Amino acid sequence: KNEVEQSPQNLTAQEGEFITINCSYSVGISALHWLQQHPGGGIVSLFMLSSGKKKHGRLIATINIQEKHSSLHITASHPRDSAVYICAVEAGSNYKLTFGKGTLLTVNP
Amino acid sequence: GAVVSQHPSRVICKSGTSVKIECRSLDFQATTMFWYRQFPKQSLMLMATSNEGSKATYEQGVEKDKFLINHASLTLSTLTVTSAHPEDSSFYICSALPTGAYNSPLHFGNGTRLTVT
Fold first, then answer.
1. Which residue in A42, A50, A100 is closest to B111 by CB distance?
2. Residue B108 and residue A97: Cβ atoms within 8 Å?
3. What is the C-alpha to C-alpha distance for residues B18 and B69, in angstroms, rounded to an integer?
4. Which of A22, A51, A89, B30 has the most CB atoms in a 10 Å sphere around its CB?
5. Is A80 helix (H, G, I), strand (E, B) or coil?
6. CB A98 within 8 A of CB A88
7. Which DSSP letter does residue B59 get?
8. Which residues in chain B are contacts of A88 at CB distance < 8 A?
9. How far apart, in whole angstroms, are the C-alpha atoms of residue A60 and residue A91?
């Protein structure tokens, strides 16, 4: 069973700061997902990656398969980025995800 | 973009009754949908994989007779919590995988908060 650990659990930042959220997992995977969960509970998929780096707007996700580690970066953070960010992994290309506990990000104006 | 509608968003029911939650892909077809559960301050947990036209596959520890899943069309999966008990109170959320999509992200519903009294 894959163990997915995220750090930090909680993160408070000032608007404009560069944010990094980390994710480590214990078993080899086929893909890693970064998700954003809004206060009401709805979830948006941010990235799905299996190697290297992806960028979308102010968001960047990287993964190091050898080290079993991924990071999510937010540049020029904004209060609207405040949400829970969840790392999830899949082992067998079947989209059956194992989730981390999430990182609660609060960006203050 | 691809939209998944989940209904209801909140439901309160009495112990012993059944509750049906719908997950609908609005602008794409989804042969496969997933159901998850999230207890307060806990990780999301995959409950089952819903496959159109066939039986759902349940994760270990999830009672298939208690959590009935029906995926009768390419755009709709339903989860029925039967004989609900207070310990079933949780946040339930679905996701859908566009049919034929490879290396495509999942599309999630907005979730259903179930309270059993």
1. A42
2. no
3. 13
4. B30
5. helix
6. yes
7. P
8. 44
9. 22
From the list A34, A23, A101, the residue with the least C-alpha distance to A68 is A23
Per-residue pLDDT of chain A (109 residues), as tens digits, is 779 999 999 999 999 999 999 999 998 899 999 999 998 889 999 999 999 999 999 999 999 999 999 999 999 999 999 999 999 999 887 889 999 999 999 999 9
DSSP state of A76: S
Sign of the CA dihedral with B32 first, then B33, B35, and B38 last:
positive
Residue A23's beta-bridge partner residues? A6, A70
User: Looking at beta carbons, which residues of chain B come within 8 Å of A48?
Assistant: 103-105
Cβ-defined contact of A41 to B110 (cutoff 8 Å): yes
Interface of A with B (CB under 8 A): 4, 31, 33, 35, 40-45, 47-48, 50, 86, 88, 94-102
Give whole-number Cα distances, B42 to A54, A96, A101, B39, B101, in Å: 28, 18, 6, 5, 30
Tell me the count of A-B CB pairs closer than 8 A.
56
Nearest to A22 by CA among A94, A71, A82: A71
**Nearest CA to CA, how far is B111 from chain A (Å)?**
6
